[in-house]
Amino acid sequence: MGRAHARAFLSARSVYVLSPAPVLDLIADQDAEQAAAAAAVLGFARSTGDWRRVVVDPDVDLVAIATPNLLHAPIALAALQAGKAVYCEKPLAATLEDATAMVAASEAAGLPTGVGFTYLHNPMIGLAREIIASGEIGEVTAFRGAHAEDFMAAASAPFNWRCEPENAGGALADLGSHIIAMARYLVGPIDAVSGRLSTVHRRRPSAGGALRDVHVDDQADAVVGFACGATGTLSASWIASGWKMGLSFQVTGTKGSIAFTQERLNELQLFSSGGAARTSGFTTILAGPEHPGYGAFCPAAGHQLGYNELKTIEVEAMLDALAGRPSASKDFRFALEVEQIADAIRRSHRDQRWVAVR
User: Fold this and answer.
1) What are the residues facing 48 on neighbouring strands?
2) DSSP-assigned letters across all residues of 118-150
3) 113-135 confidence digits (pLDDT tens)
4) Which of 49, 330, 69 is nearest to 186 (CA)?
5) What are the distances in angstroms from CA 131 to CA 136, 174, 255, 259, 354?
6) DSSP-assigned beta bridge partners for residue 250
7) Minimal CB count within 10 Å: which of 134, 180, 205, 296?
C-alpha cells in the first residue's frame, strides 16, 4: 500500500495540473535500512526508520499513512498536532474510540484529511451515485452488497497482523469497511443493523510453524436499515474461495436497478422499467471521458482504468483538499461513520439483537 500511495502521488503530478505539485520528500519504514531502500525505488528525497521524524519535519505538509491499522491513530494524531494534513488508509483506526479522537483532532485543527476508500473514486461509482440521486431508478428500496476475497481461504494461510484483534479487526474491518462505505456513499446513512460474525479457521500457523489462536472474524454478514427507509444486506469475507476482488452491489429502486462488480470496474449495469420491451434487461454502460475522472487518463471510452488510476484520482482529491479547492476526498468524518456502522455490527453479534448505529 505504501508503494500504491507513492505511485499515485507521482502519477498525479503528471496527469493533473496541480499547484502546488506534490514532492515526495521523506519516507519512513520500520527500520532505516528498509526505508532507504524504499526511498531509492519510489523516488523519495530522504528516508528514516522512525515515523515520528516525518510528522515533526518542517518541510512536510501532508502525511500519508499506509501502515497496519494499529498505527493509524498515533501517527495521525501526532501529525495533526504538528499542523500536518493527513491522508490515511482505511479503516480509519483499530478502535472506534481512536477513530473518534482522530475526527475530533482534525476538526479542532481545521486541517484537511482523506481516507483510502479508493473504490468510491471510480467514475462508474460516481455515475451510480448520480443515477440514484437523480431519481432515475425511483425510490431506493434495497442495497445488496458484498466484498469477497480469498487470500485467507486456506487454513494454512499464515497468521499475520490482520489476525490480531487489537491491530486489525478481521474481515469486517479489512474488507467490510469498503462495502459499508459504498452503501453509505450511494444510499445514505444506515441507522440500524443485525449482524453475525464467523471465524472459520480458528488456528493458523505462525512464522515459526506453531499454530496460533485466531480471535478475529473470517466473514461478516449484516442486515441493515437505511435512514431513507431502504433495507439491505452487507457481507465481507476473506475466505471466499475463487474471489479475487469480489466487491459488488445491486441497488434496487421502484423504477429500475443498477449493478456493479469491481472485477469489471469499467462497467455499470443499468435497468430501467421504462425501457422498450425488447431492451427490458440490463444495459451495460462503459466508462468513458464523459464520466468525471476518466478523461484525465484517456480520451476514448472502453480503454479501461485500473486500481492505480483510481488511487491517483483519490490522491488528486486529497491534494485539492490540501490546496483549499473543492474536493471529493472522503474525510475523517465520513470514515468515522463507517467505523460506527462496523461497531454496531460487532455489538449486534455480541448481543444477538438489532442495534442502532450510534
Assistant:
1) 28
2) GGGG-HHHHHHHHHHHHTTT-SEEEEEEEEE--
3) 999 999 999 999 999 999 999 99
4) 330
5) 6, 28, 11, 12, 31
6) 144, 259
7) 134
Q: Where are the beta strands (DSSP E) in the chain?
A: 26-28, 46-48, 62-65, 85-88, 113-115, 140-148, 190-198, 203-205, 211-213, 219-226, 231-237, 246-253, 256-261, 267-272, 283-286, 355-356
C-beta separation of 161 from 221 below 8 A: no
Domain boundaries, the chain: 2-118, 120-299+330-351
What average pLDDT does range 231-249 have in this prediction?
97
The model's pTM: 0.96
Neighbours of 72 (CB within 10 A): 25
- Other residues' Cβ atoms within 10 Å of the Cβ of residue 229: 10
pLDDT digits (tens, 9 = 90+) for 48-69: 999 999 999 999 999 999 999 9
The grid cell for 10 is: 507521482
Q: How many residues does the chain have?
A: 358
Homologous superfamily (CATH) of 120-299+330-351 is Dihydrodipicolinate Reductase; domain 2 (3.30.360.10)
235/226 Cα distance (integer angstroms): 16
